[in-house]
Write a structure and sequence with these properties.
269 residues, mainly beta, Porin, 13-stranded mixed barrel, two-stranded antiparallel sheet, 15 strands
Length: 269
């Protein structure tokens, strides 16, 4: 009640303030976000040697505490550098495994265990133009030297020498002239002595429409059964290496486009 000696005082009533919104639920109960999404626009023609598709990072939905960070593997690799001038470069990538043929898992170090890896390796072949030699280089995708091949055209003895990145001879390939079948012998290092023979390869028949080679390791006394078989076609620029007479694949080489090859090397046991 108002005091009898004082006039009544007007009172103003204020509505109660709205309660603050509840905090967002823990991150664990949010539905999972996609790791990345593929935009419909494909970026091409960045330069004459590369093209690709960028992956965009989606914004977090409303109410999410922070934007989602996709893993680094979701982003495309950097574009490779252009090839050297006045040289013919062949880019080698690894194809997907073909389920129709068996693949051997364990390594057989025919040349050396240091050349057997648990994974495929992308390689590039760089060959100089307008030269009297048959030299070429093998590099990785970052242009790091892996091997060199030295050879001479129009020579009396057809021979090639495979060098490592340091310039040391790894293998010597020699064409055996006096042979019923065309035969190549592969020796260790720069030697051509019979004691350094690693394996030999010869055509399976005198007349062939497609290349078929039988490979025999040096410790084999007879050539009744081959250790590896190579089947391929020069026209198709492809070949497959099988273990013995089986369908188990040891290696593949195929051309996907001009000067572009897929190398799948599988050391096996």
């Amino acid at each position: 009640m108002a005091h009898p000696n004082y006039p009544p005082v007007a009172q103003t009533f204020y509505p109660p303030t709205a309660a603050p919104p509840p905090p967002p639920p823990p991150q664990a109960i949010y539905p999972p976000l996609p790791p990345y999404y593929y935009p419909t626009t494909k970026v091409e023609g960045v330069n004459e040697h590369s093209s690709g598709t960028y992956y965009a990072q989606p914004a977090a939905p409303a109410g999410y505490p922070a934007a989602y960070q996709p893993p680094p593997a979701a982003y495309p690799p950097a574009y490779p550098p252009p090839p050297p001038s006045r040289q013919q470069q062949s880019t080698c990538t690894v194809p997907a495994e073909r389920p129709s043929q068996a693949i051997i898992p364990n390594p057989i170090p025919v040349v050396g265990l240091q050349y057997c890896l648990p994974r495929p390796v992308d390689l590039m072949i760089v060959r100089k133009l307008m030269t009297l030699t048959d030299d070429f280089s093998v590099t990785d995708v970052e242009n790091n030297m892996m091997f060199k091949v030295k050879g001479k055209l129009m020579s009396l003895h057809d021979k090639r020498v495979l060098l490592n990145a340091a310039g040391n001879p790894v293998l010597t390939l020699s064409n055996k002239i006096l042979s019923a079948h065309k035969r190549w012998q592969v020796f260790r290092g720069a030697s051509t002595h019979p004691s350094d023979l690693i394996f030999s390869a010869r055509t399976s028949s005198m007349i062939q429409l497609k290349t078929k080679l039988n490979v025999y390791l040096a410790n084999r006394t007879t050539e009744d059964v081959c250790d590896f078989k190579v089947q391929g076609s020069w026209a198709e620029r492809s070949c497959t290496v099988f273990v013995g007479e089986s369908t188990t694949v040891a290696a593949r080489v195929s051309e996907t486009s001009t000067n572009t090859y897929n190398f799948e090397l599988i050391c096996s046991n």
